[in-house]
Amino acid sequence: MIRFLILCVVFFLLYLGFSAITEYDSSLEVSLLGYQLETTMFTSSAVFIAAQLILMIVLKFIFLVFDIPTLLKKKWHKRKLVKVNKRLLNSLAQLLMGNRQQSLKITNSLVSDLDDDNKDVANLLLSETETGFDKRISYLRNLIDKKHYSVYAAKELAKIFYQNNHHKQAEECALKGFNEDDTDTELMLILIRVYSSLNLWPKLVFIVSKLQRADVELLEKHSTEIAGYYYAAAKFYLQSGADSDAIKYLESALELKPDYVEALSLFAELSNNVGNTASTLKVLKAAFAAKPCFEIARMFADNSKSSEDVIYGMLAGIADPSKYPALFLAMAAYLGLIEKIKTIKEPKLITHDN
Fold first, then answer.
1. Max Cα separation, the chain?
2. Is the dihedral of CA 159, 164, 168, 169 positive or negative?
3. Where are the alpha helices (DSSP H) in 97-184?
4. Which of 24, 22, 30, 23 is nearest to 48 (CA)?
5. Predicted confidence band at 341 (pLDDT cuts at 50, 70, 90)?
6. DSSP, res 145
7. Per-residue pLDDT tens for 68-101?
């Protein structure tokens, strides 16, 4: 009912409009092919507009007829693309489920049907499923200049080159990724390992400082590994006769791993050579506090000029002898403190008698 009323109102308004226009309409005579045609300005305008609309409809229909092959081709390409995307997703699913060979088989069968964007995805999948060194390198190199894949490709290439002892190529790829994203901590770890292999110790120090600012927990997680690199740097400089540089790298190693026995031993030797016994004892105290053990305690005793009782007292002040009876029994024996041995053993004897 409402629609009927609206339609009536529309027709009524059109009637009023046409009635108002006819009052201002003027007659028009047209001579065409010897014929005199009488009409009005409104009628001729309406006929012209209608002819234009009909012409536009005819032209659109003609163009549509000519475009039918193109439209059919686009529709076919779209359907093909949907099928390809489904197979790519299947390949990815197979990879995630651990079926690497099945994923590799599906992706290889799709390569010829892929457009540029999908080829990037295929290269990514193939780089993960292929096991051959050369093929993986090839697929990743196809991605290294792609906007959304470059950092990942550079990182993976750096890993592969490093694992296969191609350290210069690993450095180049890792630096390329690092220059694009200098917050990637995984790239930092790769660069640390690469620089250690290439004996580029100042660069290693720089990247370690970046890692420390970026992720302290990750640095602590890999502290033993990185301390080992610092120890290797110290031995490298020691062979070159740069004892002061060697001491600096040993200090860095011991900051990361205070109980690093090999680094402690070398640090004590070098520090004592330059007469810096106080520094040696300070570092050994920190190491003993971090990990009370006989080796560190023995080094402390060997480097201290104090009496045996004082040395024992210092160590007992750092770690509670009641928590480490075997350690302090061994130290008392090493220092020749017979009374201390009896004191440590006495509680055991009492317990036994009871």
1. 146
2. negative
3. 100-110, 116-129, 133-141, 150-163, 167-180
4. 30
5. confident
6. T
7. 777 667 766 667 666 666 766 677 677 666 676 7
Single-letter code of the amino acid located at 231: Y
Per-residue DSSP letter, 146 = S
pTM: 0.70
Query: Across-strand partners of 35?
Result: 32
Token output for 29: 């005579």
78 vs 163, residue with greater confidence: 163
- Single-letter residue type at 142: N
**pLDDT number for residue 344:** 74
Tell me the two tokens of residue 109. 């069968």
As a whole number of angstroms, the distance between CA 199 and CA 337 comes to 47
Return d(Cα 228, Cα 132) in angstroms, integer: 31
Which SS3 state, helix, strand or coil, does residue 96 take?
helix
Angle, vertex CA 260, rays to CA 256 and CA 261, nearest 5: 165
Specify the amino acid at residue 79: R
For residue range 138-151, list pLDDT tens digits in order. 888 888 888 888 89
